[in-house]
Amino acid sequence: MNHIGTLYVVATPIGNLQDISLRALEVLRSVDAIAAEDTRHSAGLLTHFAIQKKLLAVHQHNEQAAAESLLQRLLAGESIALVSDAGTPAISDPGAVVVQQARQAGVRVVPIPGASAVVTALSAAGIASGGFLFHGFLPASHAQRCRQLEALRGLEATLVFYEAPHRILECVADLQAVLGDERHLILARELTKTFETIHRCRLDEALAWLKADSNQQRGEFVLLVEPPAPREAEAVDENARRVLNLLLAELPLKQAVKLAADISGAKKNALYELALTLKAST
């Protein structure tokens, strides 16, 4: 009886071939076959490192059928490496269906970490505040793209997108229209390649920067939209503060805030924030 094989999920370079790991090379040399998003593209990588292996096509148009075929090979005892054209498989690239079916069938899945465009861009962006949300590619249509951006607009996190060169101008225009002028955008283009560019500007400056040099519209993009700047607390003048203090001594917080706003004319939200601070300090 054959032992079940192993599925290796292998990250490959996103541009510079020297970024491949020693472990990835060892796995690619040892497996029975390599499942690739584009067999011609992966053939170039393998030739560069003098690796000769059978290549099997697994792309977005055949992934379901290919996953079933790969699963039969794995269950028969073959070990297979799964690669995409660049970076880590199944991250905005084919591969997730293959991994899911393999895991459900009890096949061992081993990740071989390496290059990832989103992590590469974030590492050089210098964004220190908060977390990030990786969204991947936005929809191609203007209306659907704007709807998704609208749903993300209120998140206080760096928003990370992938975008293709032929849609970069319209995508950036929609980012500005939905997310506003003041948030900062980092355009990371052709990462690890000869013409790598990492440019930071306000959203209302990005479109003009791209249009000023058509070369900056070429290549694959990672777009990082920084979180909105924290809103400064509204100031409460001394008179409103005195009124609020007197009312808080006699009334519940919400009632005191409402009356203080009515009496002083100060903003209720600012008074409410101040009331919470005053309560916490007593």
TrEMBL record:
<dbReference type="InterPro" id="IPR018063">
    <property type="entry name" value="SAM_MeTrfase_RsmI_CS"/>
</dbReference>
<comment type="similarity">
    <text>Belongs to the methyltransferase superfamily. RsmI family.</text>
</comment>
<dbReference type="InterPro" id="IPR035996">
    <property type="entry name" value="4pyrrol_Methylase_sf"/>
</dbReference>
<dbReference type="Pfam" id="PF23016">
    <property type="entry name" value="RsmI_C"/>
</dbReference>
<keyword id="KW-0698">rRNA processing</keyword>
<keyword id="KW-0949">S-adenosyl-L-methionine</keyword>
<dbReference type="Pfam" id="PF00590">
    <property type="entry name" value="TP_methylase"/>
</dbReference>
<dbReference type="GO" id="GO:0005737">
    <property type="term" value="C:cytoplasm"/>
</dbReference>
<dbReference type="InterPro" id="IPR000878">
    <property type="entry name" value="4pyrrol_Mease"/>
</dbReference>
<feature type="domain" description="Tetrapyrrole methylase">
    <location>
        <begin position="6"/>
        <end position="206"/>
    </location>
</feature>
<dbReference type="InterPro" id="IPR014777">
    <property type="entry name" value="4pyrrole_Mease_sub1"/>
</dbReference>
<keyword id="KW-0808">Transferase</keyword>
<protein>
    <recommendedName>
        <fullName>Ribosomal RNA small subunit methyltransferase I</fullName>
        <ecNumber>2.1.1.198</ecNumber>
    </recommendedName>
</protein>
<comment type="function">
    <text>Catalyzes the 2'-O-methylation of the ribose of cytidine 1402 (C1402) in 16S rRNA.</text>
</comment>
<dbReference type="InterPro" id="IPR014776">
    <property type="entry name" value="4pyrrole_Mease_sub2"/>
</dbReference>
<keyword id="KW-0489">Methyltransferase</keyword>
<feature type="domain" description="RsmI HTH">
    <location>
        <begin position="234"/>
        <end position="279"/>
    </location>
</feature>
<dbReference type="InterPro" id="IPR053910">
    <property type="entry name" value="RsmI_HTH"/>
</dbReference>
<dbReference type="GO" id="GO:0070677">
    <property type="term" value="F:rRNA (cytosine-2'-O-)-methyltransferase activity"/>
</dbReference>
<dbReference type="InterPro" id="IPR008189">
    <property type="entry name" value="rRNA_ssu_MeTfrase_I"/>
</dbReference>
<keyword id="KW-0963">Cytoplasm</keyword>
